[in-house]
Target: 3-oxoacyl-[acyl-carrier protein] reductase
Amino acid sequence: MENQQQTQYAGIAGKTVMITGAAAGIGFCLSKAFAQQGAKVFMIDLNQEALTEATQALQAYSVQGYAANVTDDDAVRAAFEACKNSFGLVDVLFNNAGISLNKPSLDITMSEWRRCVDINLSSLFLCSQEAAKHMQQQGSGVIINTASIWGLSTSAERTAYCTTKAGVVSMTKCLAAEWGSLGIRVLAIGPGYTRTALVEKLQQQNTLDVADLERRTPLGRLAEPEEIAELALFLASDAAKFMTGQTYLIDGGWEANGFQ
Ligand SMILES: NC(=O)c1ccc[n+]([C@@H]2O[C@H](COP(=O)([O-])OP(=O)(O)OC[C@H]3O[C@@H](n4cnc5c(N)ncnc54)[C@H](O)[C@@H]3O)[C@@H](O)[C@H]2O)c1
Model:
């Protein structure tokens, strides 16, 4: 779905926006949407090849790619330094990098568990802490985390994913409570199933039945990543300046429909 919306969101043009997991899927759409609003977008991803392709696709805008693993403390600190040198202090941090782990709990190895916790939860704390150091100097900033419907719901064979995303929902509240007085808003988005490589991979592994998901979603389809980006722009903008501490689901009614 090509992004048709041309709504201008106040308070985004000229801002420095750092996005993790920016080379593909939701992160790429976020990067494009913020860049189209006139933001300077610093795109971090583990996958150098995909990052090069992604930044080339956005070369008409003010974007910079930076290859880093968001679980690596030193690499993250170096990324913030590089961002400061290129674009200035971070105004908006989008903690989006994440992985799925759908597997029976008896079969999950501790190394798989730790990797999931590291990427889906600990890295968000690390990046948020670094961003808040920048933001407190400016007296303002917005941190948005990509949680999931699975941060508010639970299911068999998704223990690691659900637990880490529930942790993201909780961390969002805690940091919002602590950093509100610094002028920093902290929010989370909880997408339902969204058409990205992550979902395609689960479909290929036969761990996801897309037709069944569409059937149980009241609006009858998966989300498009551009729709997630639209919510992100609103939350980052001045229109949402009294919003903090909450997770906003965007799921076509999936969570409201319960389990069937
Ligand atoms: N697609 C969905 O249905 C869906 C639904 C709810 C939530 N989410 C969440 O949205 C986020 C993005 O998902 P997506 O579907 O776009 O995924 P994706 O797999 O399409 O893209 C994720 C990107 O993150 C990068 N990445 C992964 N680990 C990294 C690391 N350690 N350091 C830096 N970059 C890393 C990958 O290289 C990739 O480019 C994730 O947090 C995911 O849990 C996705």
Summary: The mean pLDDT is 95. The radius of gyration is 17 Å.
